[in-house]
User: What shape does this take?
Amino acid sequence: MNAERAETPLRSVIVTGAGTGIGRATAQALLAAGFAVTLAGRRRRPLEDAASDDSGARHPNALVAPVDVTDASAVDALVAAHVLRFGRLDVLVNNAGVPGPAADVGELTLDDWSATLAVNVTGAVLAAGAAFRQMATQRPMGGRILNNGSIAAQSPRPRSVAYTTTKHAIAGLSKSIELDGRAYGITCTQLDVGNARTGLLDDVIGGPDVEPTMDVAVVAGLIVHLAGLPAEASVPQLTATAAGMPFIGRG
Assistant: This one.
């Protein structure tokens, strides 16, 4: 990791899962809005692409950090590298996740369950924990943690037991952070998104013409807004879905 410190302090953000989908759109929107951003994810190439313009030049306020969010020491090193470069950590966008298998609970294998749990819950807890520890040293300003919960945290799709269960766990994680963070000026938002257009979505809904979708830039814009809120404001939960998609009443 390039750990050169930025000369001008900026409000700084770590985005996990920043190489694709919502994470990529969010990292790029944050950079465009003037934030300093560490783009974290498993593969360097997509992260480099997300952090660079059409000419291939990396944004001056971007740090690229390949990381496995299920590795506690690697996540701690990620936060340390971010703070070394940017001085503090204002916001964590806790976005890394996997869709899990299409299966009901009777079909779900232990290996598939363990793999989904490792990224969606353990990875989210490790990233939140490392961010929390850093933010707790930044009192009274603390920081903000934004957890990508998915509308599956509220209502499942059929045959999505592994994903749905892990996203319900994110609801508990978010509430616990919001409660335990009060003493340190740390707030937490559970952001539940439905049918943002990404490469993953077609696999979930069976194609772009099956259900209504919305531009992923809408979600990125919401996250930029949340990241820019003053410390005195907390948004514990926010749901954003494509208009008309099957969410309320689905099942």
